[in-house]
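Sanity check. The docking grid for nicotinamide-adenine-dinucleotide depends on where the pocket ends up, so I'm generating a full predicted complex first rather than guessing from homology. Inputs follow.
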Amino acid sequence: MKKKVLITGGAGFLGSHLADRMLAEGYAVVAMDNLITGDIRNIEHLFGHPDFVFVQHDVTNYVHVPGELHYILHFASPASPIDYLRIPIQTLKVGALGTHKILGLARAKGARVLVASTSEVYGDPQVHPQPETYWGNVNPVGPRGVYDEAKRFMEAMTMAYHTFHGVETRIVRIFNTYGPRMRLNDGRVLPAFVGQALRGEDLSVFGDGGQTRSFCYVDDLVDGIYRLLLSDEVQPVNVGNPAEITIKQFAEEILRLIPESKSRIAYHPLPVDDPKQRQPDITRARSILGWEPKIDRNEGLKRTLAYFKTRVTA
Ligand code: NAD
Ligand code: UDP
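Predicted complex below; grid placement will be based on this.
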């Protein structure tokens, strides 16, 4: 019998790539999603696969999975700033109530659960790069608070279930990740810039573009998550690519990659509480998981662009 894994947020960007990887590793996959920010097209190719099931369900309500369950990857949550600003209460609920349901399910089934946390737990960081030992600088009542605090609560709840109920838990802190299956209109910087460049619109750089991010290609991230799932590490682990770049340089890079584009850069106000810098310290992932990213931005952007070109014309 194959081991069974439940992937919440399974129709999302990361959840769908995880479904592909887990099926390729020989697991049976149950993808659960309420499609609030996901897209069924991300998993369309898996329908009909004998080891794949899709269940449309909101994980803030009681979650039932019949039979044995060995692993849970809890990835359900809006992830883009424009999404969680549009649906702030759902964002808080899935991080808090949804996580509670998933931990209860893990306890009942004796399943190991890995939860998707984020570099946003560090807020606008005053320590750079960010190691897992940094506690962060988060504004709980700012616009990003609904996401950041939900994820911080999720980590606390996960650790409590581990400590008090002995549930096998893993926490990954994911830094900005990109790749095929991001929604062109999800507002995150990469789809925003690529969509604008392909349509010939100016690239919307927020602020002076001096803020930094560090972008990880999705296949690298999925590999780090898979290794963490199978490891013994209970403490949070950063997974991301330390190659840091300013947003202005990133816009210029996208324009170089699409030489036929007539677009230029246009500056817009910086969103409230937008972190000024972000770069993962991946010492822990390197030493515990033997993991580091392999795909550089040039290669990752080429692969992603090929995907977006099919979407812009679709
Ligand atoms: P996404 O929006 O593409 O995927 C999230 C999925 O969760 C969607 O399919 C959505 O419909 C589903 N969902 C949301 N609320 C739900 C609910 N109540 N019940 C069932 N399904 C629900 O976003 P993503 O980029 O794939 O992010 C996946 C996870 O990874 C999120 O938890 C996010 O916080 C985390 N993460 C992502 C990044 C990144 O760079 N992509 C960075 C840090 C953390
Ligand atoms: N950003 C931008 N233009 C856009 C979208 C985003 O300049 O059209 C900036 C945003 O202000 C932030 C960075 O790009 O500094 C990354 O934004 P994103 O929403 O992708 O993720 P974040 O890391 O902020 O959660």
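Relevant for the grid: The chain is about 40% helix and 15% strand.
Also worth noting: The mean pLDDT is 97.
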